[in-house]
Design goal:
The chain is of the alpha/beta class. The protein has 2 domains: 173 residues, Quinone Oxidoreductase, Chain A, domain 1 (Alpha-Beta Complex); 131 residues, 3-Layer(aba) Sandwich (Rossmann fold), CATH 3.40.50. The chain is built from 13 helices and 15 strands. α1 packs across α13 and α6 crosses α12. The structure holds zinc ion (ZN) (2 copies).
Length: 338
C-alpha cells in the first residue's frame, strides 16, 4: 500500500509499505480521508519525531476486514477513529488528565492516517471508533477528533452564559472554538490578521471581530464588559507578545487559556499581575473518551459547522507541500485523500 512517511528533519516520501495484518478484536480500515492537524505541522516544522513515522490521526475510512470477536462494526461500515486511548484507571485518568495518561501516549493507530490502510487495535475499536452516519460527509466526520479537543477545552473553562470570551486565531481550531462558545452561549470576540477569516468567524457565530494587531482591543473589550474585561482569552494561535498583551484584556479572576504552543522560547510574564489579579493560566491538549462522544454528537446533530473550514484536498504526494501552505496561512484545513 502507499503511505506518506515522514523522515526527520524535513522530508515526506510516498513509499510502498505492507498492508497491516490484523489480529483478534482488530479492524482493517481503508482510509478515505485524513485531515492535517496543527500537531502534524508542528512535528514536521520542528522536526519532533526522531525516527521515520507515518503521521495523520483525523481520519475516516471503510471497514474492509474485521478480526475474531469484533461485535461493534462490520465490513462496509464507515468509521471515524481517534488515535489515543487512555487507561481510565491511573492517577492521571482519575484526575481527568486523560491526555497525560502514559497508556494514552503509547497507544496509536498503525501506521497512521496518511496511508491507504490502517490497523485499528482492539481497544480503539471499543473506545475511540464511531460509525459515520449517511448525513455526515468524510470531511465532516473526520473533525470528530479535533472538535473533541476543543470540547474538552471549553468544558474545562467552566464559563457561564453571557460571559465574554476572546478567541485568538481563526484557523480551523479557532473557528470550532467560536461555535462551541456560542453554544453556552458566551459573547465572542474573534481576533485574526486575515479579513476573510474574520468574515468566516462572523458567519459561524462570532459576535465581534477585530484585527489581532489592532491597538483598540483592550478598549473594545472593556467597553463591552462594563469595564470588567474578558472572562477568558483562548489562544489557538499567536506568539509570546500576544500572550503578554492579553493581560490587559482579561478580567480579575479570569483565565488565559493556551490551546496552542505559542512559542518554544521563554515568555516573560508578570507573576505579580497573575497573583494580585487571580488570573488562571491553563492549557488543554487532547480529549477524553467522553469528549469524543460529545464531539461526534455535535457533528451528527449539525450543531457545529466544519465543512466551511476545509480549504484543500490533496493526494499523499502533496502532503509536505500542504504543510507549507498551512504554515504560511494560505490553507486552513487540508484533507489528504490517500
Ligand atoms: Zn490533532
Ligand atoms: Zn490512565
Amino acid at each position: 500500500m502507499r503511505a506518506a512517511v515522514y523522515y526527520p528533519p524535513d522530508s515526506i516520501r510516498v513509499e510502498d509499505l505492507p498492508v497491516p495484518k490484523i489480529g483478534d478484536g482488530e479492524i482493517l480500515l481503508k482510509v478515505r480521508a485524513c485531515g492535517v492537524c496543527g500537531t502534524d505541522v508542528l512535528k514536521v516544522t520542528r522536526a519532533l519525531p526522531k525516527k521515520p513515522v507515518v503521521l495523520g490521526h483525523e481520519l475516516v475510512g471503510d471497514v474492509v476486514e474485521v478480526g475474531q470477536g469484533v461485535q461493534k462494526f462490520k465490513v462496509g461500515d464507515r468509521l471515524v477513529v481517534a488515535h489515543h486511548v487512555p487507561c481510565g484507571q491511573c492517577h492521571y485518568c482519575r484526575h481527568g488528565n486523560h491526555s497525560m495518561c502514559r497508556h494514552f501516549k503509547e497507544t496509536n493507530l498503525d501506521p497512521g492516517g496518511f496511508a491507504e490502510y490502517l490497523r485499528i487495535p482492539a481497544e480503539h475499536v471499543e473506545q475511540t471508533a464511531f460509525r459515520v452516519p449517511a448525513g455526515l460527509s468524510d470531511d465532516e466526520g473526520l473533525f470528530t477528533e479535533p472538535l473533541s479537543c476543543c470540547v474538552r477545552n471549553v468544558r474545562r473553562a467552566r464559563l457561564m452564559p453571557g460571559d465574554f470570551a476572546v478567541v485568538v486565531g481563526m484557523g480551523s481550531i479557532g473557528l470550532m472554538m467560536v461555535q462551541l462558545l456560542k453554544l453556552i452561549p458566551t459573547q465572542v470576540l474573534a481576533l485574526d490578521l486575515f479579513e476573510e477569516r474574520l468574515e468566516l468567524a462572523k458567519r459561524l457565530g462570532a459576535d465581534f471581530t477585530l484585527r489581532g494587531d489592532s491597538p483598540d482591543i483592550a478598549a473594545f473589550i472593556a467597553e463591552h464588559t462594563e469595564g470588567r474585561r474578558a472572562d477568558i482569552v483562548v489562544f489557538t494561535a499567536g506568539g509570546g507578545r500576544v500572550f503578554q498583551s492579553a493581560f490587559a484584556w482579561v478580567r480579575d479572576g479570569g483565565a488565559l487559556n493556551l490551546f496552542a504552543s505559542l512559542s518554544d522560547k521563554p515568555v516573560e510574564v508578570s507573576l505579580d499581575a497573575l497573583y494580585h489579579h487571580e488570573i488562571t493560566v491553563f492549557s488543554s491538549y487532547s480529549p477524553s473518551p467522553e469528549d469524543l462522544v460529545e464531539a461526534h454528537r455535535l457533528l451528527c446533530e449539525k450543531k457545529v459547522q466544519v465543512a466551511p473550514l476545509v480549504t484543500h484536498h490533496v493526494g499523499l504526494e502533496r502532503l509536505r507541500e500542504s504543510i507549507d501552505w498551512i504554515t504560511a496561512q494560505q490553507a486552513m484545513k487540508v484533507i489528504v485523500n490517500p
